[in-house]
Write a structure and sequence with these properties.
Cytochrome Bc1 Complex, Chain D, domain 2, mainly alpha, 54% helix, 2 domains
Length: 226
């Protein structure tokens, strides 16, 4: 039994080692093929524009899954679909490996959206704004860790991990340090059925039970995670 376990362990080690070499080679090719992506997703996958997601450090299998969904029309994305149509599976894997090998950048200090201030309302002091932001992030953290039982909103931590690191084998994306604006848009798209045509999609079923305030709060909390 011990001999068999050792054999399996050695075999897995060899497979892992070989896969690492291949991944390095493919990632190098992927960098070249991803050059045109930098306009929206930033150099190395760290988008500077909050409406476009950061891709650096994202799980490669998740990125490949999304590119296939764009190409097949399973994910509604007018900007990405034409680009994905020109990629074969090998190119998708190479681009995904390139981005997966990067490191996502931390976000600057968060601030409340400008439209949170009503023109007719009294001007808020910096202390009031900070207290409101802190309360929003606290609310988001509670929802991320515990969900909301009364509205049957599942806790994000169950799939995306305690540090929003995602789940690589299950192809659940890493979320930490993502732009809050992009996260809000994504959750709203799930909620409104715009992200996917599949009504049995897990994120659609969760997001449709979330309030707009829930979505903003949890997005701000995730964006603050490093």
């Amino acid at each position: 039994m011990i001999k068999k376990l050792l054999t399996v362990a050695i075999s897995l080690a060899l497979l892992t080692s070989t896969g690492h070499v291949l991944a390095q080679g493919n990632a190098g090719v992927g960098k070249t093929k991803a050059a045109s992506c930098a306009g929206c997703h930033g150099e190395g996958g760290n988008s500077m524009m909050p409406g476009f997601p950061k891709l650096a450090g994202q799980h490669a299998n998740y990125l490949v899954k999304q590119l296939k969904a764009f190409k097949a029309g399973e994910r509604n994305a007018p900007m990405m679909a034409p680009l994905a149509l020109g990629l074969d599976e090998k190119s998708m894997e190479e681009i995904a490996l390139y981005y997966a090998g990067g490191k996502i950048s931390a976000n600057p200090a968060l601030t409340l959206p400008a439209n949170d201030d009503d023109d007719d309302a009294p001007t808020k002091t910096e202390e009031q704004k900070k207290a409101e932001l802190d309360a929003l992030i606290t609310q988001g953290g509670d929802l991320y860790r515990n969900g909301n039982l009364s509205r049957e909103v599942s806790a994000c931590v169950a799939c995306h991990g305690p540090y929003a690191e995602g789940n690589k084998p299950a192809a659940y994306p890493a979320l930490h340090s993502q732009h809050a604006e992009y996260l809000i848009k994504t959750l709203m798209d799930f909620k409104n059925g715009q992200r996917t045509k599949n009504t049995e999609n897990m994120m659609y079923m969760i997001a449709k039970k979330m309030t707009d305030d829930d979505i903003k709060a949890v997005s701000y909390y995730i964006s603050s995670m490093k």
